[in-house]
Design goal:
By secondary structure, the chain is an alpha+beta fold. It has helices spanning 8-20, 49-63, 82-90, 161-178, 200-203, 209-212; strands at 34-41, 67-75, 93-98, 107-114, 120-125, 134-142, 145-153, 184-189, 206-208, 239-244, 248-256, 272-279. It is built from 6 helices and 12 strands. The strands form 2 sheets. The protein has a 6-stranded mixed sheet with strand order 3-4-2-1-12-11. A 6-stranded mixed sheet has the order 5-6-7-8-10-9. Strand 3 and strand 4 (107-114) form a beta hairpin.
Length: 282
Amino acid sequence: MRLRLLPATCVLLAAAMLVGCVPSTAKRAAPPDTLTLVTLNLWHDKQDWSHRQDLIVAELAALKPDVIVLQEVLQDVALPNQAGALAQRLGYEYRFFSADPPAQARRYGNAILTRTPVEQTRETKLQPLDDYRNAGWVRTTIAGRPVNLYATHLHYTPEGGAIRARQIASLQAFMRSTQEDVPVVIAGDFNTAATTPELEPLLLRFADAYADAHPGVDVETAAHTTLNTHLGHPATRIDHVLVQRDAYRVVDARIILDQRDATGAWPSDHYGVWVKLERQPD
């Protein structure tokens, strides 16, 4: 029996009709909008900063977080700004925030590094002013959506809860003046556990990302410390990432930069905290 060949136009039409019949459920769903962030206290220029810098860069380059928040950042006559050095090596933008006068050679403070362009930025000194603490703010866009990032480093003494409470009140006022209708992530060295009374006003609106990532686990034990106990610190989790509850879901969080290298050097006297967040639908 002789086969009849269909004209080419008929074949193409049939193929197009078949494609059009594929159910919409077979289409690939768009990936969720995620934000990854690391917070780390740098330990300023203690020990061999050049070597420690290499250790920090190696791990952050592997992780490629969207945002890096740093505390105890130092610059001096013979020391280029530490956040600037890391940003240059990693390919990030950065903003440095300090309570020290801008014209002063030696300045100490916090920094925010972003893989995406900084759109707005500001800083403020926290009350009480004689404690020389500050907070910095950056707005950027990640995965096509704006986010407010805040960095801070609070008073350090265990008995200084009342001072930290005043600093948190200052931070909240600063956020009200800058955040508008854009979601917020706060990161830094709070020098206290997330369960202490002074952090309660923040935790009414913000979730402790590390705790949320470990439901049913007591994260206030030595296994979850962010202070480097090998360098004489107590085992306490004082470095936190706080995320706006109605804007982000915590996907994962873990302690990083918590290993010494072959020479026995540590990246810092703190460990870092890495978090992965998923943006909730508007």
